[in-house]
Amino acid sequence: MTGYVLRRLGAAVLVLWAAFTVSFAVLYLLPSDPVSIMLDAANPGGTVDPAQVVELSARYGFDRPPLEQYVVLLGRAVTGDLGVSVTSGAPVSQLLADAFPQTLALTSVALGIALLLGGTIAATSSWTRSTRLRGALLALPPLGVSMPTFWIGLLLLQLFSFRLPIFPAVGNQGVASIVLPAVTLAIPLSAVVAQVLARSMRTAWDAPYVETALAKGASRGRVQWRHVTRNAALPALTLLGIAVGNLLAGAVVVETVFSRAGFGGLVEKAVRAQDIPVVQGVVVVGALVFVVVNLVVDLAYPALDPRISRTPATA
Amino acid sequence: MNATPVLRVRDLVVEYEVHRSTSVRVPAVRGVSFDVHAGEVVALVGESGSGKSTTAHAVVGLLPAGGRVVGGSVRLHEGELVGLPSKAWRQVRGARIGLVPQDPGIALNPVTRVGDQVAEVLRIHGRVRRADAARQAVEILRSVGLSDPEARARQYPHELSGGMRQRVLIGIALALEPALVIADEPTSALDVTVQRRVLDLLDDVTTRAGSAVLFITHDLAVAADRADRVVVMKDGEIVEQGPTAQVLGSPTHAYTRSLLAAAPQLTVTTPRAPVPDIGPAPLLEVLSVSKAFRLPGHAGRTVQAVDDVSLSIPRGGAFGLVGESGSGKSTVARLVLQLTAPDSGTVLLDGAPVSDPAGRSVLRRRSQLVHQNPFASLDPRFTVAKIVDEPLRSHRVGSRAQRRDRVVELLEQVALGAAYADRRPGELSGGQRQRVAIARALALEPDLLVLDEPTSALDVSVQAQILALLDRLRRERGLTYLFISHDLAVVRQVVDRVGVLHDGRLVEVGPTADVFDHPQDPYTAELVGAIPGGRAELTPELLERSTR
After folding, report:
1. What pLDDT sits at residue B214?
2. Which residue of B lies nearest to A208 if distances are taken between CA atoms?
3. B229 in the same domain as B369
């Protein structure tokens, strides 16, 4: 068990390192001149003083060979120092810390909605004996998957913000403002959850242990809850790790559509201004979230499936 | 037997929907009638597709999707079960009818503790508190003969052996002392010694509870040992029923007779004509091979799968390797075929070590393997001709036309004929598939066939045909067999010499008749004693007829 945890932790660190390295390679080796961008931001349209360029390059280390820059930046990143924004001069870690809670709240609420919605659709469709209800429920996920996120967002805005002014259209004020963006973000994921869960629940219903349970006199509801859901959730758990990555990507779009502050806004601005340290910081934090979630999933597996952690001593 | 029977089935008809879109329905059970009285064991016997399992599931109201009772009546004591609303059914299942399912390996929920699964049936039917149910569950586990039941209750199914799991399932089925127990092939997935102990337990607990038992089995020998009455089914109908001694002793229906003739355990072996000695030199020699496997998840710990095993098979001979699961018999087969390398010892084929590169290429050509499961060993997308042709193609034997002729010849040898050449495995029955697998094995004219449980996935009558085919091929072509099986009765029909494997060691080797009639090792004696059919009282007349 200890070996398992250590291996997982090692893999997580490796992924983080790879994310940092790849983003460094892509961003720093691109034909772009961060110094002139900085000077342009400080004094739009002004003339460029060569002495100032040299001085700035030296201060940020841009005059060093790429490998040396990489080693220095990696060393700083390990201690939590991700550099300074080129455009605003604020520490990247500060910018990320300001934006992160907003995005975290949005993605967690979306994840919760997706699991609840997808799980309910899957469980009801596998529990019911009405083929008509099952057919109707199973038609929903393909619909949800095929609708683009931004379009769902616009549709929800139109309906619940402009026609029926229930929820605010934009901004980060209060609980109500998170509802529409979270639902928008949750719908495609809930469709995937419903599809995967419905399939593994159907398989579980055909398993012999279900017959054993029914032969005990258990009701279909009891079987669904006690036997099917528990077994079907295991294959779906792996999906969660991947889904969180998609949620972060989706959050960037949704935050833009709803003009919410968060990672989305930060990324958009940073990319437009070629603010390399900020972009790299976002990539690293995104990778960190992804790695942590997958680590939790991997470590939760043995706790939920006794067959993994408690292998008997026979071949 | 004048009292009201516990179970009275009359003119039961069950149909299956072929496909949901079409409304085509096929009858699986057509007008079946029988009774089961209190304290009685009735065996429902038949081959796959006979409708025996469907009948049992109709009785407990658990037909698979698409299955429906369309006629007849099923009465438990006085109450009609057909058409019962689902809420009323739930009070019957588990409390008045207990089900012992087929495969204990998969019939328990893998992620729930054993004790909780036993307690569940108590919680469903009685208003027992959780703690009381848990305590009673431990008592139930004790009553089905599990040692240290407190510890077992906290374990998960995969931590118990197959026999222990079946004990748990028997405990669940009998927890509330139901009037009727349905045992659906309860031991066909278990080793023969375990099977005997589990069936003894089932006898014991059903007698204690006074339950009537409906016992579903494909194994006539088990029925002969355990049942008071036998009901024989074929194609959804009952062909014959009556007291066990009468049905099996003087069967009136031709189908019952053919089943009896095919049942290896009930057949007294005819003294077989000795196979001509082709050469005195052994074709296959296994010289004290050993193989250990590392245990996953336990660094450094190993299990000795094969421990100093030596055997020798003369050219044209047939050697049976018998053992229960985990005895190492499949590992011996893999060592012989060089699919895995031994830790020590050598395997000689025709005097040459097969571990040498030269020896190995000879081995690949002159020895072939026939797998246990003909449903998995044939590529479903290939035609029969392509399957049989594959070894010829990969060894570049002959021209295309020559190979085609050879395939037809091979199919004829296994009694399939050229008409099967263009079919695909999906269109064939289990027995036909195994014939294709044998034809493929014969394609390169091997000297040695390694047969790994070649009939364990087949019905008894099909099994008898395949065994007869193997016997004929050996005589005609001077083949040498290494026959691996857990089923002593099957081995007995085919081999000259037999070796008994136990925990990786060969505990006894000798001529087949000697080992069976005068076992020297206590483990061999236990194995032979556990063969079902031993308790049947068969008339000499039947024995004579069944061997004919």
Report:
1. 95
2. B107
3. no
B17 within a domain of the structure (yes/no): yes
* Contacts with A212 from chain B: Cβ below 8 Å: 99, 101, 107-109, 117, 169, 172
Ranges of each domain in chain A? 2-78, 101-309
**Is A213 at the interface with chain B, CB within 8 A?**
yes
CB contact under 8 A, A307 and B102: no
Chain A neighbors of B117, CB-CB under 8 A: 212
Contact at CB, A216 and B156, closer than 8 angstroms: no
Does the structure show a pLDDT above 90 at B32?
yes
The C-alpha of A135 sits at a distance from chain B's nearest C-alpha, in angstroms, of 13
Contact at CB, A212 and B295, closer than 8 angstroms: no
Average pLDDT taken over every residue of chain A:
84
Contact B110 A209 (CB under 8 A): yes
CB contact under 8 A, B99 and A212: yes
CA distance A127 to chain B (A): 13
In tens, the pLDDT along B203-241 reads 988 998 889 999 999 888 888 889 999 999 999 999 999
- Tell whether B273 is covered by a domain: no
Pair (B31, B102) in one structural domain: yes
Indicate yes or no: CB of B124 within 8 angstroms of CB of A230: no
pLDDT digits (tens, 9 = 90+) for A168-225: 877 777 777 888 889 989 998 999 999 999 999 999 999 999 999 999 999 999 999 9
Give the global pTM: 0.79
* pLDDT tens string B266-275: 655 554 555 5
Phi-psi domain of A70 (left: phi exceeds 0; alpha: psi -120 through 50; beta: other)? alpha
| Closest Cα in chain B to A232 | B111
B97 & B38 share domain: yes
Whether B309 and B255 map to the same domain: the answer is no
Residue B542 lies in a domain: no
Rounded to whole angstroms, the Cα distance separating B296 from B200 reads 35
Average pLDDT over residues B412-431: 85
Mutate to test the interface with A, among B60, B68, B120 (most CBs of A within 10 A): B120
Residue B90, min C-alpha distance to chain A (Å): 4
Verify that B226 and B313 share a domain, yes or no. no
Q: Phi, psi at residue B366, to the nearest 5°?
A: -100, 0
* B96 and B174 assigned to the same domain: yes
What is the ipTM, given to two decimal places?
0.77
Interface test with B, best of A216, A219, A220, A311 (most B CBs within 10 A): A216
Q: Are residues B156 and B240 in the same domain?
A: yes
Q: How many domains does chain B have?
A: 2
Contacts of B121 in chain A (CB under 8 A): 216-217
Contact state of B109 with A209 under an 8 Å Cβ cutoff: yes
The class level of CATH for A101-309 reads: mainly alpha
Q: Are residues B357 and B244 in the same domain?
A: no
Q: Is residue B224 part of a domain?
A: yes
Domain of residue B506, CATH code: 3.40.50.300
Contact yes or no for A209 and B107 at CB 8 A = yes
Backbone angles phi, psi at B311, to 5 degrees: -155, 165
Q: Which residue segment(s) compose the domain that B37 sits in?
A: 7-266
